[in-house]
């Protein structure tokens, strides 16, 4: 019944969804079952969101933080296209009887944000900095939060900050979701990922517009079922446009040097670029460059190199077992220049 209610709220095609009630479970270990619901492109985002909720809940329970004490290691990437731009803290929180999250003070000029993801993978606008924030949702009893904390903190500094974060929730019932058939889930996820190059070719700079929206604010005007489903497959938990603008590339051959020289995007927070293998996962310890770490050119522009050797400016290695690489530029608290359409990806060129 829970999945049916979510589908009605989303306006999805109910006929395409299973009508038999699957067993409700509270752990990721139990999530996949041959007797579970069949995933379709219409319900994939809901199933993937349930998977993410259960993954965190199984580790730390409900209303508790799972703090990542180090920047994302290559052997622990729970979703595609994670990055090392920030430290992560995540939690599944029961908001049915009210809940708040309190974030501590951090030094001026440092980045800390809190994102709320509802059970149907709709994304609320971020909260920034210190404070006590009320949590709410338009559907279900739970939300998933991601707190991102500046990567320029040392591990000791970020641990002290994370340990001061707190959750106050009046209800403690765990999140549950119907079981899902794993084979169909994997097939739909793979198919949705293959649609991203088509969207990139069609929509260009606006390829990710409409993927991460909230039905209760103005971002809902950008929502499309196509972008909603593909967004969950290529970057679950992505932020609203006002908080992050993403540039996601297609695949490049990993054995060829590429470079991009571009103007400073002048974001309110920072920009970054992260390199992934064909499947969307980081594969090397040095996987990204950001405006916090990159060396500027004499004229104020940036040059970022991909697979061009240690002597190349701001180089990121690209060789990996998949034989291909792709990249994601992220603009944190994007500038008006970025909002107006300036993009970095068009500047990425093969170097002979």
Automatic annotation (TrEMBL):
Pfam families: DUF1214, DUF1254. It comes from the Bacteria. Residues 261-336 form the DUF1214 domain. It comes from Vibrio inusitatus NBRC 102082. Keywords: Signal. Residues 62-117 form the DUF1254 domain. SUPFAM superfamilies: VPA0735-like. Residues 1-21 form the signal peptide. InterPro entries: DUF1214, DUF1254. This is Murein transglycosylase. Coiled coil: none annotated.
């Amino acid at each position: 019944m829970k999945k049916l209610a979510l589908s009605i709220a989303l306006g999805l095609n109910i006929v395409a969804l299973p009508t038999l009630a699957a067993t409700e479970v509270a752990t990721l270990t139990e999530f996949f079952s041959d007797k579970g619901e069949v995933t379709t492109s219409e319900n994939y985002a809901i199933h993937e969101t349930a998977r993410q909720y259960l993954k965190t809940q199984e580790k730390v329970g409900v209303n508790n933080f799972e703090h990542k004490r180090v920047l994302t290691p290559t052997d622990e990437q729970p979703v595609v296209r994670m990055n090392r731009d920030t430290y992560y803290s995540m939690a599944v929180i029961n908001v049915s009887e009210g809940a708040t999250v309190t974030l501590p003070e951090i030094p001026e000029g440092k980045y800390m944000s809190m994102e709320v993801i509802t059970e149907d993978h709709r994304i609320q606008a971020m909260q920034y900095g210190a404070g006590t924030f009320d949590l709410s949702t338009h559907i279900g009893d739970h939300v998933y939060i991601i707190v991102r904390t500046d990567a320029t903190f040392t591990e000791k500094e970020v641990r002290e900050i994370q340990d001061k974060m707190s959750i106050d929730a009046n209800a403690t019932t765990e999140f549950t979701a119907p079981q899902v058939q794993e084979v169909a889930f994997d097939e739909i996820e793979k198919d949705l990922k293959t649609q991203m190059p088509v969207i990139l070719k069609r929509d260009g700079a606006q390829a990710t517009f409409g993927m991460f929206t909230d039905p209760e604010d103005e971002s809902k005007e950008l929502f499309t079922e196509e972008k909603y489903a593909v967004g969950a497959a290529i970057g679950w938990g992505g932020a609203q446009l006002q908080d992050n603008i993403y540039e996601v590339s297609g695949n490049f051959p990993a054995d060829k040097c590429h470079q991009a020289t571009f103007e400073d995007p002048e974001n309110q927070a920072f920009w970054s670029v992260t390199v992934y293998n064909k499947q969307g996962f980081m594969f090397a310890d040095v996987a990204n460059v950001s405006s916090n770490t990159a060396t500027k050119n004499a004229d104020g522009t940036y040059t970022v190199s991909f697979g061009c050797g240690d002597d190349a400016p701001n180089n990121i290695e690209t060789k990996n077992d998949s034989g291909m690489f792709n990249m994601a530029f992220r603009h944190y608290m994007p500038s008006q220049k970025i909002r107006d359409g300036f993009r970095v990806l068009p500047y990425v060129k093969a170097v002979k």
